[in-house]
Write a structure and sequence with these properties.
The complex is a heterodimer of chains A (111) and B (113). Chain A has strands at residues 3-5, 9-13, 18-25, 31-37, 44-49, 53-57, 60-65, 70-75, 84-91, 99-101, 105-110. Chain A has no helices and eleven strands. Classes of the chains: A mainly beta (111), B mainly beta (113).
């Protein structure tokens, strides 16, 4: 089977940097994605890592270590609008591939 | 360019009834996936449709069925509704070759009483 673990809640202040970790156990791992979901909203794609290392997209970066079955999402220069739930999701290959989501991390950004 | 749309937005049904939810994918996408999201949980994969066929299925009973039409839109049907089926049902579309990046619709909030 597959399992993903994330912290349930993280709190940080505006302007700070926060890291959300994700560890996974899966067969046939292909890549790790990150999605953001505001309360009452749809999940939106943030980032994807298929290879080890860091991927940077503006204020957001994502890291993957395949050997450690571990990844993280790094959010810099936090803004109030970043308060949301963040999900890591494992994919097992292109074509006919499903996403298995973690339980999510609720990020609260405070003044 | 319209994103993923779903209808209806909200739905209230009685235990034992049947429900049909609808999804139109983002323009250019050919693959549609359905997810169930319970409160405080991550989305759980139900199934995925490509070329009008179910390509993959998650751990959901046969009461959950679907369909994809030639224009790539899709329906999710749930029969014999249970209280535990109350959830947000999300539709996501993608290209068949890039399934890791899925575009989600706003969801249908189903309440079973």
């Amino acid at each position: 089977g597959q399992s993903l673990e994330q912290p349930s809640e993280v709190t940080a202040v505006e302007g700070a940097i926060v890291q959300i970790n994700c560890t996974y156990q899966t067969s046939g791992f292909y890549g790790l994605s990150w999605y953001q979901q505001h309360d009452g909203g749809a999940p939106t794609f943030l980032s994807y890592n298929a290879l080890d290392g860091l991927e940077e997209t503006g204020r957001f970066s994502s890291f993957l270590s395949r050997s450690d079955s571990y990844g993280y999402l790094l959010l810099q220069e936090l803004q109030m609008k970043d308060s949301a739930s963040y999900f890591c999701a494992v994919s097992r290959g292109g074509g006919g591939n499903k996403l298995t989501f973690g339980t999510g991390t609720q990020l609260k950004v405070e003044l | 360019d319209a994103g993923v749309t779903q209808s209806p937005t909200h739905l209230i049904k009685t235990r034992g009834q049947q429900v049909t939810l609808r999804c139109s994918p983002k323009s250019g996408h050919d693959t549609v996936s359905w997810y169930q999201q319970a409160l405080g949980q991550g989305p759980q994969f139900i199934f995925q449709y490509y070329e009008e066929e179910e390509r993959q299925r998650g751990n959901f009973p046969d009461r959950f069925s679907g369909h994809q039409f030639p224009n790539y839109s899709s329906e999710l049907n749930v029969n014999a509704l249970l209280l535990g089926d109350s959830a947000l049902y999300l539709c996501a579309s993608s290209y068949s070759t890039g399934d890791y990046e899925q575009y989600f619709g706003p969801g249908t909030r189903l309440t079973v009483t």
